[in-house]
Amino acid sequence: MIKKASYFFLVLSATMLVSCSAKETDSSTNLPVVSVVKPVSGSLQESVSFSGYVEAEAMIYVIPMVSGTIKEYPVKIGENVKEGTIIARIDSEPFKQQMLQAKAAYMGYENTFTRIEKLYKTNTVSLQEYESAKAQRDAAKASYDLAVLQLSYTDVKAPVSGTVLAAPLAVGAVASSQSPVAVIADLQNQVVRLEIPEKYFDLFYKNDNLRAEVYRTVTNLSENSLEQEKQILADCTINAVAPFVKSTSKTFQTIFEIQDTGEKFKPGMFVKVRVYYKELENASLLPAGVLTLDGSAYIYNEEDSTCKKIQPEILGEDETYIAVPEKYKDTVFILEGQNSIFDGQKVRVIENENPQG
Questions:
Q1: Distances in Å between the alpha carbon of 88 and those of 16, 63, 82, 154, 279?
Q2: Exposed (0-12), middle (13-18) or buried (19+): which is 19, by Cβ within 10 Å?
Q3: Helix (H) or strand (E) holding 23
């Protein structure tokens, strides 16, 4: 009987031990899951970003000086042309006839003037007749010169070297001074003109310590058909900052010149300009993701597995990281799961498979 009681007591003790162990395991399993991170030492550059479009620094609209039907139109979009290259040929026949007519009139007045000039030298005609003949000759000469000039304008030439951005007409169309036959730009000189809000005026105006870069995001399909995004970057310099703020839009214009564009950027592309204005060296950096929706953060106590809510002082920040005071250099911050816990709560830490920082 005693043996049976002892056996029953052993079984009961083992059952209670397993039950307590299971409860402890279940309790640990039910804790909120978080991942943690410690600050790392590094440099941080504070910046602001603005969106805009790439433009050629100078876009030349090739406007014909005379009107007429286009007979030849050799230019093509994307073609590189040199100064003086024929962009279009306008029907020259009407202008040739005007030139010949003006030439005949000029030659007639020239002969008349030559005859009267000889008579004037012999005092046969009056000074008034001489000056009248000379004025008629000069007017006819001006008309003839104008006709020759207009004839030359039938060959519409590129006024500068560059790349043809637009060629909106075609053979048979009527060219006029109301619309360009082509638009030419030097793609080696590209800019981004931005209208920047008034609150940044003091930051930009007469500040030589700013550094800027321009970038655009492109999407590539990898071999396994997954979309991958990457940024194409280029340095840029601040060419000009308007010395005034527009009263209507409360903005001021700033022009950024893109350096070493190559084939990276083309006019019309949507880009972002990032302007760096402050740099922190040897700062304690944390991923910006440690901040909760209200701007606070949670630190993790390894001794009792609890979390504590704090309002960290932020010394600087960029799009990826925040800089915190050095006193936090050995502090463990909760990186993921912080938006579903509360102050003082116990948590379970798992290894961060994609750590930041």
A1: 99, 11, 14, 8, 54
A2: exposed
A3: helix 2-29
Question: How long, in residues, is the chain?
Answer: 357
Q: Which amino acid, 170?
A: A
SS3 category, 329: coil
Residue 224: predicted pLDDT: 61
Tell me the CA distances in angstroms from 57 to 54, 83, 186, one per residue in order.
9, 17, 8
Residue labelled with tokens 């005609």:
125
pLDDT in tens, 129-173: 999 999 999 999 999 999 999 999 999 999 999 999 999 999 999
Match 């920047």 to its residue by tokens.
196
Instruction: Encode burial over 306-325: b for 16+ CB neighbours within 10 A, e otherwise.
Output: bbebeebeebbbbeebbbbe
Structure tokens at 42: 């590094």
